[in-house]
Amino acid sequence: MNGLTAWMERTILPVAAKIGGQKHLVALRDAFIGTLPATMAGSVAVMINAQIT
Questions:
Q1: Where along the chain do its domains lie?
Q2: Are 25 and 19 in contact (CB under 8 A)?
Q3: Do 20 and 26 contact (CB within 8 A), yes or no?
Q4: How far is CA 22 from CA 19, 26, 33, 37, in A?
Q5: For the whole model, what pTM was predicted?
């Protein structure tokens, strides 16, 4: 398992760091994080409404 972890750190981590540092992707990530509470609250409201009717 340590070999797999080391391989992932050597190969995948640099690519993920480059992708994660791009401004437009960071903006999208922050926008999704910002809208997540409203989406969750709306989903709960829809489920409660479905139980009532």
A1: 22-53
A2: yes
A3: yes
A4: 6, 6, 17, 24
A5: 0.59
